[in-house]
User: What shape does this take?
Amino acid sequence: MPKCEICYEDVDKVYTCKLCGVAFCEDCGDPKRRICALCIDEEEGEEEDLDEEHEDEEFEDEEEPEEEDEEEEEFEEEEEERDERRKGKKSRYQVR
Ligand SMILES: [Zn+2]
Ligand SMILES: [Zn+2]
Assistant: This one.
């Protein structure tokens, strides 16, 4: 039975670290990447993650429900008495 060189425990299967060559169990590293726990930090530092998460800025046009019941009562007091200028009012009333 293989033996993990990191935790020194007999495990079913060990993986060889591609960096340091240590035999590690699945609990002491990343079997998929073949990196032991001791080298994971280095590996992550070398490989620059180009997978920048492009957060899609979704411009949601969700109108926020305005629960303001304040009715803006616009009292447009346009009581401007229109100068009823009767243009037709001819003041040429010639009084002789
Ligand atoms: Zn181990
Ligand atoms: Zn390693």
Notes: The first strand starts at residue 15 and ends at 16.
